[in-house]
Write a structure and sequence with these properties.
Length: about 325
């Protein structure tokens, strides 16, 4: 790790007035600094800022500095969010990691994290060895010829499914952005992960009220049961009445360069009976547009199966 200056601003205004890299839980930033992937000259410890609190009154509001473990345990949090958090990391990491930091974590692509190899996301124009190399964990959706790295956050998948927004504060004031719109697919600029402006900070996550999202779940398929990143995951919320699907929200992770919403699957579910056959029919379009690589073609078939598994799990009582 290279030398850096550490400061701890006491107010949001102080933090915004001080150029540097924000540090909350540090579970991603410190790792990348140790690897020399990130080498900030100045780090701003923002843990003293008033960006905490969980309000489950009308909808759900979560302060960006809330810890993952506290949010997962809160009784007003939708099940899909809680389950995504509980499957994200070890208990020790969940006790440290912040909600805002989790949404902004960098990819876990091994080439990105190895400074001895090329990586367009780390050094633009240097190449993407994952395309022809070790790519079993990589994306099949939202990729480009410049980058095939997956997005790492489980929480972001659940929040994208629920149309969550993030409140941002910066030198130009405050703005609110749909979380799905904040993330950027790589295209020709894979070094740009999102549309945060320089010095901008997430202050709060806002999830619109959705009463039937109490019927929701998060299914994560991975190589081992604990502390592992997703091969494929599905966040599902569904409204079933009289045996038919009235509405649904579906997003997936582990297969795309950003948290990936599936509006075509949602549309196919609406009005359909809540049965395995209908779920399989709807999920059949989940992998449309997939671009498999040499070692991850299995994700194109794993994806619809994971969506169906989540739908069956969350509607088990309706089919009993």
């Amino acid at each position: 790790m290279r030398p850096f200056e550490l400061t701890a601003p006491a107010t949001v205004d102080d933090a915004l007035a001080s150029p540097g890299t924000f540090l909350a839980g540090g579970t991603t930033l410190v790792d990348l600094m140790k690897l020399d992937v990130l080498t900030p000259h100045r780090v701003l410890d923002i843990n003293a800022l008033p960006l905490r609190g969980i309000d489950a009154g009308d909808g759900l509001r979560i302060g960006a500095l809330e810890r993952m473990s506290d949010v997962a345990a809160h009784p007003g949090v939708y099940p899909v969010i809680s389950r995504a958090l509980l499957q994200s990391a070890s208990q020790q990491l969940r006790n440290m990691a912040s909600i805002g930091g989790n949404l902004m974590q960098r990819t876990r692509c091994s080439y990105f994290r190895d400074v001895a190899t090329p990586c367009n996301k780390r050094v633009p124009g240097s190449g993407c060895p994952a395309i022809a190399g070790a790519n079993r964990m990589h994306a099949v959706l939202g990729t480009s010829d410049a980058c095939v790295a997956t997005h790492a956050s489980d929480l972001a998948v659940a929040l994208v499914a629920l149309d969550a927004r993030v409140r941002l504060v910066g030198a130009d004031g405050e703005r609110t952005v749909v979380l799905a719109d904040l993330y950027r697919t790589p295209g020709g600029t894979p070094e740009v992960d999102n549309d945060l402006r320089p010095g901008e900070l997430i202050s709060e996550i806002v999830v619109p009220r959705l009463d039937w999202a109490t019927r929701s779940t998060y299914v994560k398929v991975r190589d081992r049961q604990s502390y592992e990143f997703a091969l494929c995951s599905a966040a599902v919320a569904i409204d079933v009445r009289d045996g038919r699907v009235v509405d649904a929200r579906v997003a997936v992770g582990g297969v795309a360069t950003v948290p990936w919403r599936l509006p075509a699957v949602e549309a196919a579910l609406r009005g359909a009976p809540a049965t395995r056959a209908s779920f399989e029919d709807a999920a059949a379009v989940a992998a449309e547009g997939a671009r498999p690589l040499s070692a991850n073609a299995f994700k194109a078939s794993l994806l619809p199966r994971t969506v169906v598994r989540a739908l069956l799990e969350v509607t088990e009582g309706d089919r009993a």
